[in-house]
Design goal:
350 residues; mainly beta; Neuraminidase; globular; disordered N terminus
Length: 350
Amino acid sequence: MKFYLYCMFFCFCSQSAATTLQFPNLPEPVTNNAVALVSTSEGDFLLSFMGLAQEKDYKAVHNKVWALKVGEKSWQQKTSVPSSLTIKGRLASVAVGVKESVYLFGGYTVDSQHNEISSPDVYRYNVLNDSYQKLAKMPVPVDDSVALVYQQRYIYLVSGWHDAGNVNLVQVYDIITDTWSQASPFLGVPVFGHSGGIANNRMVICDGVAVVPQLLKRRKYSKIAQCLIGQIDQTNHRKIDWQLLTHPTNEARYRMAAANFDDKIIMLAGSTNPYNYNGVGYDGIPAPATSEAWIFDVQKQKWRVRIGDGLDSMDHRGLLIYQNHLITIGGMGIGQQVLDEVIARPFNNP
């Protein structure tokens, strides 16, 4: 029945497709977790790092790690992510897989008084020997950022939150030299909880939440409907030509899952109401999850919007692509329920 729903409503799968990939559930529900996919000499692995358990309070923030070797029947718990901060659990970290390694960036801690600190930590994780290597710290620690890989060497962290506000920085980590540099600043409104993908040398960044001042009142958090495309100079990876891009719906989304599929950038699910880590909106209204998808064709410079498939979710830190499937791991579903599901949607790349 699920496969029929995908084809009927999501419109991603080929009618000739015979099966939909299925994966075992996580050992326990988790949301706001960093996710990655790596292909190794011993097989392909899906990974989930850190995040928030189903209780959704500050004590539920953890640094647990689970790995699934594709083809096996259950996830395995791995060594927890280390931290230079006193509190070890983190939210809003980002992870990317490059060759056989996973690179983990930032995130923030939450204490009993709800104080939040952005982590400067960067680690390389090896799933085969379950080990971490500490790398050069971020110049400006950020969380709720977007991480994009270029030429299998440079990892761009675009905008995001630093301790008390958003930054317009594009920080670039060089895998080979273990060094950081600054690229052309992000020209959109600085945001957190935005989404993005990269195809060849062009990256697309959409939406997120901005901090907005008010007249003689405490600042507020407002969703921002914006999309920008940035073209990386092929002779200088630190130079990015940012331009505005037409928004696909004119309604902002928060924490969509995003990735690239060949020359397509896909943004999936998320919420229309930005929220605190417990899933309740900054306006006090519980945030709704969605399953709509936006697809940007980089070559044609056009958006397509796909109707949702009914498998609504939000609070994602990444979208994984595996064997023509779009994969989300955990997140929040209807009623802000923390999920243990691994959802694989077939994707026919037109």
